[in-house]
Amino acid sequence: MERIFKFKYGLNSIDLKLPQSKLIKEIKGRQDHKNDLISLTKNALENPIESPKLSQIVKQGEKVTIVISDITRGWQKSNLFLPFIIGELEEAGIELADITILAAVGSHRFHSEAEKQTLIGEKYYGKVAFKDHNCHNKDELSYLGKTSFGTPVYFNRLAVESDRLILTGGIVFHDLAGFSGGRKSLLPGIAGYQTITKNHALSLADKRGEGLKKSVDSNHLVDNPVHLDMAEAAALVKVDFIFNVIPDGRGGIAAAVAGDLIAAHQSGCEITSRLFGIKMRQKAELVFASCGGYPKDINLYQASKALVNAAQLVQKGGYLILFAECKEGIGHPEVEDIIQNYNDNLAREDFLRRDFTISRYTGYLITTAIAEIKLILFSNIERKILSNTEIEVIRTKADLNKILTNRFKELPDFYSLPDAANTLPIFED
Questions:
Q1: Is CATH 3.40.50.150 what the domain over 37-275 is classified as, yes or no?
Q2: DSSP 3-state assignment of 59?
Q3: Dihedral of the CA atoms 16, 20, 24, 30 (nearest 10)?
Q4: Among 7, 101, 289, 368, which residue has the least CB neighbours within 10 Å?
Q5: What stretches of 165-299 show up as alpha helix (H) in DSSP?
């Protein structure tokens, strides 16, 4: 019997008719929530973790900076939860003129006016100040010292000098930091470029040819130097309150946590592991995966999160079919450079060790993730951009059906990952 499998692709979806009998497992997060984001937000703000309520922290006349994630993390739905945070500040006597929204763009691009409105929401757009963080402008940064890892800590001056600092964001698995959210709103979110690159370079193994440290991976915190460095850097600035959401894998929100930077974030990480850390025993010859649609597949840079997760399920020599629209292409010229202009991963590693940047790291991560498998990228990305790789770019279901027919006498057993960006296979020993 055949079944229709839906894979989100940009703002649409690709429907594939595949034999149900060949499906090993459809890997999804656990859908055990019943509340909408508004209910979750209210509950989290009413019951902060190891912290007073926000209204009990702030005082009339204080300047407040609220850090939010950039448009590539639009799934967090900041336009829906910000009104409750700002509303609580207003009730505590904070004037709108004393509130600034600071977008934690890290080293990403700035926002258009339309994107700013999308992030803030209609109620407060134009009524509170909005600023994009600029990691390259030293005049907008404050130096706070060095971590034990040798990372010079530069954070956005506005955030550092505010009377109150509130961090918002989302918690998912992260291939560098273990989990996103919490301290990541600071580093890389509102950090200086030198701080970001030094921190992320801690991912490289000590010896040439070994690539990346094994401890730097999704779901790893305890022995992860990238996370530990972030935590040390975060301790150098006073964070008064955080609010983080956890996605549900269907375009909604499964949970929300608020309160103390460390305690609330830890609680959110535990929820994420429980919902989206899927224990597995075997790999497969064929895996179909979607990033989860826009904005998770806005470009290859963002799609890399899903690619890395899904690739772990593919056996050596097997195939990963990844649905990623990538309407903005690669996402950064440095990603394209390290993918296209180096012939093997050792050469890419050498270049990364000489001149580490986050974008080059992402390009290197992509090529190492698929080193022993075959990637079929269903995408609008230009084929020539990836011509120096073995990645096959296709655009239509007809192209895909042709590949499946030509490569396999009979379709092998397969996994389906409809939201690979948020779902992490965890192999049991």
A1: no
A2: coil
A3: 70
A4: 368
A5: 193-200, 225-234, 261-276
Count the alpha carbons within 13 Å of 157 in the hemisphere toward its beta carbon.
8
426, two tokens: 């965890």
Q: Residue 5 and residue 419: Cα distance in Å, rounded? A: 12
- How far is residue 71's CA from residue 112's CA, in Å, rounded to a whole number? 10
Tens digit of each residue's pLDDT (9 = 90 or more) over 228-260: 999 999 999 999 999 999 988 777 889 999 999
Residues belonging to the chain: 429
Q: Whose structure tokens read 């290197």?
A: 364
pTM of the model: 0.88
Question: Is 2.60.40.10 the CATH number for 2-30+281-427?
Answer: no
Q: Are 132 and 110 in contact (CB under 8 A)?
A: yes
At residue 97's C-alpha, the angle toward residues 91 and 102, to 5°, is: 95
Residue ranges of domains in the chain: 2-30+281-427, 37-275
Give the whole-angstrom CA distance, residue 171 versus residue 247.
8
**d(C-alpha 265, C-alpha 48), whole Å:** 11
CA-CA distance, 272 to 130, in Å (whole number)? 30
Closest C-alpha to 239, from 177, 178, 197, 181:
181
- Diameter over CA atoms, the chain: 72
Tokens of 397: 């279901």
pLDDT at 73 over 80: no
Whether the CB-CB separation of 50 and 259 falls below 8 Å is answered with: yes
Q: Using one digit for the tens of pLDDT, what is the confidence trace for 48-62?
A: 999 999 999 999 999
Banded model confidence at residue 71, pLDDT cuts 50, 70, 90:
confident
